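Internal QA ticket QA-208
Title: Verify multi-chain structure generation after dependency bump
Assignee: T.L.

Test input:
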Amino acid sequence: MTGQVTFGKTSWSNPLPTSGGGGDDFLNLNKDGQYVLRVIGEAPFEYAAHWADDVNGQIRRLKCAGRDCVMCKEGVKAQVRYLLEVIDIDNSEAKIVEFGTQVYKQIHALYNNKHWGDPRGYNLMIDRNKARGPSGMYQVMPLGKEELDAETKAAAIAFKDRVKEVMLKFAEPASNEENLKKLGRIEADDAKTSSWVADATTPTPAAGSNSVNAEGEEDFDF
Ligand SMILES: [Zn+2]
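Actual output:
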């Protein structure tokens, strides 16, 4: 796993993505290995996610719908997730990285450590190793403090500006309707009918959804 990581000087000559807010803008830390990142966002965006089975038995990730969330009412546990703009140092690409509380707490600790401080000032290595078990899967290590070059800084600013709307959208709760559509429990064309309300409030077994890995094994499907 370590073979893919290069330390030291990398190239910033790769073009940054220019399309708006697609899946390519996201970096999901869902494979074992070492990710070297430079935080460029001021602070993470927080939202809550559910993992729930759709009608075909596939696990889907849903944004929590907030106060009247059907998933919450059915007892499907909501998990806090964070989104943060970073430069993926290995690929020289600006990304929105997504992580859970385990990574968040470690970056938080670095931020509050007088020797490190704001993570925009140094690279982070996030080491993912599933063999360590759920509670130790992610280890966050600070790497030496290096200034980003002017070109990268400019690219970072442009990226943050471009994905601002995407980030803000994540901070808003989903609607029950869109979640139930994703689960196949209502037809996309039946959006205006109210029949799903009765179905949705009937408690159904969570079918193991609560045991899904808290650090996110699923690709983005929002
Ligand atoms: Zn919910």
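Spot checks passed. Residues 72 and 78 are 7 Å apart (CA to CA).
Status: verified.
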